[in-house]
Amino acid sequence: MLPENLIELVNEIINQKTEKQNIELKAAEKGCPNRLYDTLSSFSNQDNGGILIFGIDETQDFKIVGVYDLQDLQKKVTAQCLQMEPPVRAVFTVAEYDGAYICSAEIPGLDISERPCYYTGTGRIKGSYIRVGDADLHMTDYELYSLEAFRKHLHDDERLVERASLKSLDQDSVALYIEQKKIDRPKFAQLPEAMMYEMLNILRNGKPILAALLNFGIYPQGYFPQLGITAIIVPGTAIGDTTEQDVRFLDNKRIEGSLTVMVKEAIAFCVRNMKVRTVIDRTTGERKDQTEYPIAAIREAVLNAVIHRDYSFYTEGMPIQIDMFTDRMEIHSPGSLYGRMTVDQLGIAKTDIRNPALAVMAESMTEAENRYSGIPTMRNEMKAYGLPEPKFENRRNEFVVTFYNTVEAGTAETDAENGKKNLLDFCRTPRTRKEIADFLQVKTVGYAINKYVRPLVEAGTLKMTCPERPKSRTQKYVAAHQ
């Protein structure tokens, strides 16, 4: 960044008095911090990297204290960067602020295929960190495994289920599946039966693989008790809310069986517990019943959860969760987004599939369209119902889809025009991406920018402070007409 960008960033930090997901402060008044490895690792292990800023002491109310020696500081920071694997290449910027020198070190984010970045002195397991808020936390065994699984193309849906056998599968369903493949590919019928089972990822060495057990199994939960769905109805807006009679759940069900059975039962559970209203078509005058949420959107969310969840050893004890509150429905799927996929790219980009064998089977068994159409369908169905767009969150160890049953107050969806006006009024003073997301009460910054900010920028009513560098970390947005 340029010195003026650094000064602008420091002003923002002093005003807000906080570190951030991508900002770490170090005093460095009396010398270079001895251990930067944790932050170097965590910044390198997130998509957009981060910035170390030296010369600000947060323990003194974010006072500018300056750095002891600019040249020596950069030399020693670089030395620590070289002790990382892979080595970190920091980009330094120096600026003078109120008579003192401050220095920043921009740490680029690594491609996921190169992660984790870790401190060689403690090794990969103990030296790998992830950034959560303003804290550097040890990566869990699961997070390390997820990176390795993507890099080595390991697919947990293809692991053998040693305790199971062909008798564990519904023979009629298997026969229909094989017969359909023979119809689709006539030459496939010429193969020996054992090879058919092998090529269709049903059996390996005479044992079912996990994908086959989940799709064709008579009772998959007999082998993996938690690979099911739990569904609850909460009489409030948060877990723990109760009725006046102290009832915690209005309905509570454990859904088990093959993927096909679970999807059907999950949808039935939601339909049974949804409110229904009568809607009159303005054109025809026809009256029809409309469920609280569009069933097609729920179906896609549940299908995505059962097909794309993480089925590794680390998450096999975690069921999919459907939580219905008075104002929303949440579908929790174990495991974060797979590979390079980000929330911003959902429904747009095509990327690697976590469970390819399971997805191919499920396409036939559940009539799921493995064509990246699930997310657009959810969005379109919610829009057709006049409801807010689904919220997608990639949390640390789970992916969550949220459907709201009413237009949320305090967001741009409250009223299209009022929402835009509120945001424009807020941006009379230049605002960062995070400030805008907080104002809109949206947890995912990328979602806030794509949903609310970008349309205003394209319309010319909101402008960027650094238009020549739209992805700059110091980018702010300000109303075009003050």
TrEMBL record:
Pfam families per the UniProt record, alphabetical: Fic-like_C, HATPase_c_4, SLFN_AlbA_2
Gene3D superfamilies for this protein: 3.30.565.60, Schlafen, AAA domain
Stretches assigned to the Filamentation induced by cAMP protein Fic-like C-terminal domain: 423-477
Domain of life: Bacteria
Coiled-coil residue windows: none
Domain Schlafen AlbA-2: 19-139
Protein name in the entry: Divergent AAA domain protein
Lineage, highest ranks first: Bacteria, Bacillati, Bacillota, Negativicutes, Veillonellales
